[in-house]
Specification:
Order of helices and strands: HHHHHHHHHHHH
Distance between the termini: 75 Å
Largest sheet: none
Strand content: under 5%
Number of helices: 12
Number of strands: 0
Shape: globular
């Protein structure tokens, strides 16, 4: 095997470990952050089932963003929906035989790559063209969009510009999964794509891109509007509460 195979295998292992460990640490941090006040954004559901439905609508449809800004919602939803399909399509590189539902998604995943790219372009233009958004944008905000665009474009280029050895790439991926390394095809686009993905995995848990887990811990979304029926008391405050006298 080539030096590139060993290098990419080691880098991807490290990137995966950092990504998973960083996500676990951030989720633990979110879970431990106290919510001392009852602050659901009204109108809000009054029961647990309603809260679960509300969070589901936020996760799938970005409901609050839709009500806030239609153009931002359109580009954001297009990017996230496209990214989700692209990630599901990539499961074919880690399964043998390929699961039937993953095989069914393959043609949709191809078009999702274009949707993902279009959403990123729209979000990038928004950061430059809208004055109030440009004012609060930092260099890292622009770099994140550039990084994601580079990943999407190198992926599309391997499909439509210079075809790569997908059989070899799958063998390499399965080898990583089962600790039985196989040669990585010597292809510049594959190298670029995997290197960019590794960079994303390394910075993802510590960047602004990590907002999905926080949604589930947001008190404005995960609390029921029932302050009259149930007294809200944070765990740390309960230890200090003397109770009824």
């Amino acid at each position: 095997m080539t030096a590139a195979t060993y290098a990419f295998a080691l880098v991807l292992y490290v990137a995966a470990a950092v990504c998973v460990g960083g996500l676990a640490w951030k989720i633990r941090d979110y879970a431990r952050t106290p919510a001392p006040l009852k602050i659901p954004t009204t109108p809000a559901p009054t029961g647990r089932a309603g809260v679960a439905l509300r969070v589901a609508r936020e996760v799938v449809f970005f409901e609050s963003l839709f009500k806030s800004n239609l153009w931002t919602w359109a580009f954001g939803w297009l990017f996230h929906a496209g990214l989700a399909l692209v990630l599901l399509r990539h499961l074919r590189y880690f399964t043998e035989p390929v699961w039937s539902w993953v095989a069914f998604l393959q043609p949709f995943g191809i078009y999702a790559g274009f949707a993902m790219t279009a959403g990123l372009v729209g979000l990038g233009i928004r950061r430059i063209a809208v004055a109030r958004v440009r004012y609060i944008s930092t260099p890292s905000d622009h770099l994140m969009i550039v990084l994601l665009l580079a990943i999407a474009l190198t992926g599309l280029a391997m499909k439509y510009v210079a075809h790569t050895d997908v059989v070899g790439v799958k063998a390499f991926s399965l080898g990583l999964l089962y600790l039985d390394w196989k040669p990585l095809p010597a292809d510049g686009l594959v190298y670029a794509h995997l290197a960019l993905v590794a960079v994303l995995m390394l910075i993802f848990p510590f960047s602004k891109l990590l907002h999905a887990p926080g949604l589930f811990f947001s008190p404005t979304r995960n609390q029921a509007d029932d302050p009259r029926e149930h007294r809200h008391l944070a765990p740390w405050a309960a230890k200090l509460d003397p109770g009824p006298r």
